[in-house]
Amino acid sequence: MRNRGSVVIMEDNKLCLIKRSRNNSIYYVFPGGGIEPEETPREAAKREAFEELGVTVQINECLAEIEYEGTQYFFLADIVSGSIGTGQGEEFTERSLDRGTYLPMWVEIDDLSAIDVKPLFVAKK
């Protein structure tokens, strides 16, 4: 079990998500990842936003804490600089890892009910 820090970024009635294709299924997740031993959940969320999305963010309040294979923290965040889709994390550079595909994208909030967002609890908030 590993604790995770994730960001919830909303702009212009859209939510930034990562479209995952893995093991013949497609689903969407919030950008984020594992918290390193020396990091706080906020620091991990900020680092993961840069690695996965290519953006620097300002971390705001914690929207949710969910217990699932460790504690998962979801922070509301605002983009300070950078461009979505320019992330250089290992998800994009280590092709030998069998993790499926990652595609950062904006999703209309009105379209969330038609896609498989994990965790749904956070998307509904």
From TrEMBL:
Pfam families: NUDIX. Signal peptide: none annotated. It comes from the Bacteria. Keywords: Hydrolase. Its cofactor is Mg(2+). Residues 1-125 form the Nudix hydrolase domain. Gene3D superfamilies: Nucleoside Triphosphate Pyrophosphohydrolase. Belongs to the Nudix hydrolase family. This is NUDIX domain-containing protein. It comes from Niallia hominis. The lineage of its organism: Bacteria, Bacillati, Bacillota, Bacilli, Bacillales.
